[in-house]
Amino acid sequence: MSRGSGSPGLGDLESAVMQVLWTSESPLSVREVHAALTGRDLAYTTVMTVLDRLAKKGLADRERDGRAWRYTARASREELTAQVLRTTLGGLDPADRTAALLHFLGESSSHERDELREALNKLEQQDR
């Protein structure tokens, strides 16, 4: 399974399906997700299997709609990314966690650092 430029912790097809769910304003059927995955030669049953697995992983919610299931993303892309980072960094020694975060920040763009600085300022103001 490829772990390319998609969402963290997800394969390419899972990322594509999650992207469809994230951009929808309402729950989607398997058929609707399949139709939204334009440019991919996928069987309906493949999309159904991916959605079922995403639901079993706790990444998507599903509800009955007659004989069909309708799916929604359980968490936003940002929440999923934060969860992956918490899982990855949470098991590290505090010094290693700090070193990893500093290394990560060293590879970020000035725009990303500005956004982080703004977010940190907001958090500090909330703590007061």
Structure description:
The protein is elongated and about 50 Å long. The protein folds into two domains: 12-73, Arc Repressor Mutant, subunit A (Orthogonal Bundle); 77-127. A three-stranded antiparallel beta sheet has the order 1-3-2. Helices cover 60% and strands 11% of the residues. The chain is mainly alpha-helical. InterPro entries: BlaI_family (IPR005650), WH-like_DNA-bd_sf (IPR036388), WH_DNA-bd_sf (IPR036390). Residues 109-128 are annotated as: Disordered. This is CopY family transcriptional regulator.
Task: Show the helix and strand layout.
Elements: H1 12-23, E1 28-29, H2 30-36, H3 44-56, E2 60-65, E3 68-73, H4 77-90, H5 94-106, H6 110-127
Antiparallel strand pairs: 1-3, 2-3
Helix pairs in contact: 2-3
What order do the SSEs take from the amino end to the carboxyl end, as H and E?
HEHHEEHHH
How many beta strands in the DSSP annotation?
Answer: 3
Characterize the overall form: elongated
Main structural class: mainly alpha
Second CATH tier, the architecture of the largest domain: Orthogonal Bundle
Rg, Å, rounded: 18 Å
Helix content: 55-70%
Low-confidence runs (pLDDT<50, min 5 residues)? 1-5
The fraction of residues assigned to DSSP E strands is 5-15%
C-alpha termini separation: 46 Å
- Average the pLDDT over all residues and give the rounded result: 90
Largest sheet: 3 strands, antiparallel
Please work out how many helical segments DSSP would assign.
6
CATH class of the largest domain: Mainly Alpha
Number of domains: 2
CATH superfamily of the largest domain: Winged helix-like DNA-binding domain superfamily/Winged helix DNA-binding domain
CATH topology of the largest domain: Arc Repressor Mutant, subunit A
The neighbouring-strand order within the major sheet is 1-3-2
